[in-house]
Amino acid sequence: MKEAGKNKTTKTGKASLEREGLRAEKICKTYGTQENPVYALKETSFQIPGGQFAAILGPSGCGKSTLLHVLGGIEEPDGGSVWIKGKDLYQMERSKRAVFRRRSIGMVYQSIFLLPALNIEENIILPLLLDGRRAREKQLLGLLRETGLEAKREALPSQLSGGQQQRAAIARALVMSPSILLADEPTGNLDKASRNGVMELFRRLNDIYQVTILMVTHDEELARQCDRILYMEDGQIIRDRF
Ligand SMILES: Nc1ncnc2c1ncn2[C@@H]1O[C@H](COP(=O)(O)OP(=O)(O)OP(=O)(O)O)[C@@H](O)[C@H]1O
User: How many separate domains does the chain show?
Assistant: First the structure.
């Protein structure tokens, strides 16, 4: 991901961005027991080029969250592979995968996990501190500005609206300058105005920072605002619309 203030690039014709995309190959994940297996992912394969903003759309229980967790390095698949920045995620040692995940993949969830005792700035920079790095004022200011939270820098999460809290969580997910942002129903708990604000923010971040975004949603209207929709059903991608 590019940092604020650095040269912008166009969305097309960037070979390096192609390499920074994401590839899923025949991912399988089964839950349950041998007698009663639940096939959550059935050899799911697809590729997202670097810089694309794609949605995964599908009915409840079709495997969207499972897929996102596997892509995010959180849940090991039973089979198949995930390639990010040219690296096979599940061929890495567990400790190396944890570091790679922290530095290369941002995650945003429906439930907003901000630490209540830390102010917004402290919440946003937390991943940097956990990685042994210091926050740079210029980068922090860029993120606060993009997310419209400049005035809330020292506020506690409880002093923010749901939409503002989600925007802070998005800033936190981006503070490590990841190449991929995975968002699981990020607008699921928000009212319509906040939902539109978050979508607008994703589009802007995708444009400015060229971060690849994969967003899980139930909402066809939101999915239509993305560059591409991957329709999922019963553990598989059944349709792919650009
Ligand atoms: N930890 C688990 N143990 C057992 N079954 C699970 C587990 N997690 C998910 N499943 C099952 O796997 C299938 C896919 O679940 P998943 O949560 O990925 O679907 P989803 O499309 O994200 O659903 P929703 O839109 O309701 O969040 C479902 O049948 C679900 O019940």
Answer: 1
Work out which ligand 1 atom sits closest to the CA atom of 67.
18
13-55 pLDDT, tens digit per residue, is 444 444 568 999 999 999 999 999 999 999 999 999 999 999 9
Give the residue ranges of DSSP H helices in 132-191.
Answer: 137-146, 162-174
Q: Contact, 225 vs 198, CB < 8 A?
A: no
Domain of 47: which CATH number? 3.40.50.300
Asked if residue 61 has its Cβ within 6 Å of ligand 1, the reply is: yes
Q: What is the mean pLDDT of residues 113-123?
A: 96
Predicted TM-score of the model (pTM): 0.90
Ligand 1 pocket: which of 62, 189, 232 to mutate (most atoms <8 Å of CB)?
62
Cα 136 to averaged position of ligand 1 atoms, centre (Å):
39
Radius of gyration of the chain (CA): 17
